[in-house]
Design brief:
Helix content is 43%, strand content 16%. It is α/β, with parallel strands linked by helices. It has three domains: 255 residues, Alpha-Beta Barrel (TIM Barrel); 77 residues, no CATH class; 150 residues, Double Stranded RNA Binding Domain.
Length: 490
């Protein structure tokens, strides 16, 4: 397995295999389009990743690793599955293994970043801090190599002594890793310092595994031809780029780089397609602008706060609207899919499904809980019973609803008890094939019918009395059963 991936992904010393460490999914896909062979995600800290849940995002057609606060920490897709390397920051072998096993079926390889000199990494004993603890490096890599099915690599910085650098590289090789990336600077040096290609070359000559040269963005790589020159100067198997790829990912095009305007437009299209967070989208675009960030275009970009506003800056308003319409149509189609029940999984005696309650998707005063309650009454079942728990870690809520003699629960945690109960009701309704009351959903003859009758009654009262309608909640109290009154209050 490792030998195969070395040959196909990391290359031999006569090939050119440009790689890019560029972070989020839109930038990685863009780099692949332009000619990169391998893409790395940004360094993700193991402590954050171990808290994540793997979620299939059917709307975006992605695999999302979602934190307890609902933030997507890592997103990937089928297009990059055989090309993306998951890079983590870690200082603990077992925690690293837990993370690697969480993501290994969705990535091509696992990488440990042992070269990051930034405080957020080193203060936890990660990144470049590991360079002074070679025993821990061995423990982490040995654990990963033995514990996962995918190739394992690592990235280091050079040490002050060439002899120590070579000793470390040989120790790393003995762990069985598939390749080693070498940033040609010490942990104290910064981008303004020259990259030490001679040291990278010495490492490449000292080990038999592929060596990936890193650190040449500022000094050496400004065009596609420079990638080959950097590789040859470093005597490496391939080249990894970070900043040069961020500034213009079309640096990987063998036909020559594209205009910045074209690259930015291509990037925005991916960002919208994969629902990239606007703040990250804006950050990446500003990195591309570099010294033009204070231009009129840069100032307009800086003022943009949403995906729609970013698209407006670049004249892509129609594309944004079309993309949102496609996503909405796909979301509705998936929710109307009669096979959704097949996606239920059992957790003991509880039927579960990863769903979330979004209040904006339902008409005013109509909720899934109300639909479930009315359905239960019609079927002459007892009122649905909800049992909710709170997670101490992030104070998230999860609810289980019992209907008849069966239990239902969403695997996703909500920000409030009310939302958790609504999510549980959605799971139950979908499992039963009962409409849940979304806007635009076919009428179910349950709560929606009752609401229409109340509206007609209110209009009749207004016409006869010549006074405005009473508040909706007051009107509902006159017509709803006691359980439904309590639901409205909730």
């Amino acid at each position: 397995m490792a030998q195969t991936v070395r040959r196909l992904c990391f290359c031999d010393k006569t090939a050119l295999a440009p790689m890019v460490r560029v972070g989020t999914l839109p930038m990685r896909l863009l780099a692949l389009d332009y000619g990169a062979d391998i893409v790395y995600c940004e360094e993700l800290i193991d402590i954050k990743m171990v808290q994540c849940t793997r979620v299939l995002n059917d709307v975006l057609e992605t695999v999302d690793f979602v934190a307890p606060d609902d933030r997507v920490v890592f997103r990937t897709c089928q297009r990059e599955k055989d090309h993306v390397v998951f890079q983590m920051g870690t200082a603990d072998p077992q925690r690293a293994l837990t993370v690697a096993r969480l993501v290994e079926n969705d990535v091509a390889a696992i990488d440990v970043n042992m070269g990051c000199p930034k405080e957020y990494s080193t203060k936890g004993g990660m990144g470049a801090a590991l360079l002074s603890t070679p025993d821990k490096i061995e423990a982490i890599l040995n654990t990963l190599v033995k514990g996962v099915s995918k190739p394992v690599t690592c990235k280091i910085r050079i040490l002050p002594s060439l002899e120590n650098t070579l000793d470390l590289a040989r120790r790393i090789e003995r762990t069985g890793v598939a390749a080693i990336a070498v940033h040609g600077r010490t942990k104290e040096e910064r981008p303004q310092h020259p990259v030490h290609c001679d040291v990278i070359q010495a490492v490449a000559q000292a080990v038999s595994i592929p060596v990936i040269a890193n650190g040449g963005s500022l000094d050496l790589v400004k065009s596609h031809g420079d990638i080959r020159s950097f590789r040859e100067a470093a005597g490496a198997s391939s080249v990894m780029l970070a900043r040069a790829a961020m500034w213009n990912p079309s640096v990987f095009r063998s036909q020559g780089a594209l205009s910045l305007e074209r690259v930015m437009e291509d990037y925005i299209r991916y960002a919208v397609r994969y629902d990239n967070h606007p703040s990250n989208t804006k950050y990446c675009l500003c990195q591309m602008l570099r010294d033009r960030v204070e231009s009129p275009l840069g100032k307009r970009l800086h003022a943009a706060q949403t995906g729609a506003e970013i698209c407006e800056v670049f004249g892509l308003e129609d594309f944004y609207e079309e993309s949102q319409a496609r996503l909405l149509a796909r979301r509705k189609a998936l929710r109307a899919d009669p096979c959704l029940a097949d996606r239920l999984t059992m957790d003991g005696d509880v039927a579960t499904m990863p769903v979330r309650f979004d209040r904006r998707e339902y008409p005013p005063q109509i909720t899934p809980k109300m639909h479930l309650l009315e359905w239960s009454r019609r079927e002459k079942l007892e009122q649905p019973a909800y049992e909710t728990v709170q997670r101490p870690l992030d104070r998230g809520f999860q609810s289980t609803v019992t209907v008849g003699d069966k239990k239902y629960r969403s695997t996703l945690w909500e920000k409030s008890k009310k939302f958790a109960e609504q999510a549980a009701a959605i799971v139950c309704l979908r499992a039963l094939g009962v409409p849940e009351g979304r806007s635009g959903e076919p009428e179910a003859g349950l709560v929606s019918k009752r609401k229409r009758e109340e509206k007609r009654a209110g209009e009749s009262e207004e016409s006869s009395n010549g006074v405005p309608d009473a508040p909706d909640s007051a009107c509902r109290k006159r017509h709803l059963s006691k359980p439904l009154q309590e639901e409205v209050k909730g």
